[in-house]
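Q: My collaborator sent me two sequences in one message, no labels, and asked for predicted structures for both. Can we handle them in order? The first one she listed is below.
A: Yes, handling them in the order given. First sequence, followed by its structure tokens:
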Amino acid sequence: MSDSEFFREVDEAVRHEQYKRLWDRYGLFAIIGAGLIITGVAGYKGWSYWSEKQAGDAGAQFTQALTLAKAGEAAKAREAFTQLAEKGPTGYRVLAKFQLAAAEAKAGETDKAVADYDALSNDASVDEILKGYATIQAATLKIGNADYVEMERRLKTVTEGTSPWRFSARELLGLSAYKHDNMPEAEKQFTALAGDESTPSNMRERADMMLALIAGAMKAPAAAAN
């Protein structure tokens, strides 16, 4: 046996003895630790499978509810959306709540629909874009009986900054001002829309039309006075 082989065997024996001592002292804990790691991995895999299955089941349920709604089965559709809104995964829960609010608005239950949209717009778990959409929907339902001050309060969060809903918010504010004969404010809102190159073209066309109506409305009192 060469010296190198001898020293290697001694080294292995020493390490083996060290490992044995470590096992005698910590072996049980090592087994438990390994078990916890395996359990953790299995738990994660199980949770991933459960989440995917839940999302798949919720997607199928959501699609079925939409089909029922399109077929005129309003009661059955509402029941399905209600189940999703209460027990579905977060994403589908939010979408189901939007569908329920829309169904209420369609059925003439305006106050309930507004309350539901308001709840969505104030829900911290809802995506910012969807919160803005809920704000616009609630304001659209309120435009018939809310004064301009309320409309301005409702739409404040989406008229400022770069919200993708700022154009719709300005249009609603302009319409509210026009409805309440506040022509200077209506003119301000529609002028801002018409002059902004990022305003959608169809909305810019409506703004130009409203500016023409506003100009006529503002000239009428002057003409009557003369």
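Q: And the one she listed second?
A: Here it is, processed independently of the first:
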Amino acid sequence: MIKNNTNRGLNLLDKSSSAGDIKANFVIGYLYHEGKYIDRNMSKSIKHYKYASSFNNFYSKNNLGVIYKNGIGDEIPKNIGYAIEYFDEHYPEDIRVENYFDEVIRRWEDKISMYNLAHIYIYEIKTDEKIDESIELLIKSSNQNFEPSKYLLCISLIKKHNFDFEKIQNELTKKSQNMVI
């Protein structure tokens, strides 16, 4: 009985996604991505995620960002440029401005994308400017009670100040005047 219900549910999701349902495309993309109830197929997963992301489905964009951030073995090569594109693509094309992260955060306030983007800045790009941006993103994400951001914030501050806890405390104190930590 459960197997029949699973197959029926998958069939209905497939029909809904084929009819253009955005949420169904995300769910099917996720199922192919994880290999749950159906065989894992990353090309089908990406196809469904991209469809849903074209309608600004935030979760699809985030999952595409994670796929490209990490790569998937020999199947999907790591591509930090694509990852950044999907993590910061949560807004319409016409508002892309030089300081786009402020715009993204102001409009979407998404803690997971802030965390993922900060992670890329800390471990992939590694410039002082990007470390500073990662700290800002992680504070904002931490303020939404996203525990992983709190840990990554500690790592980024240690990387920036090389275990100089006085400097770390001073920076946090300075930033806390503008934000709640």
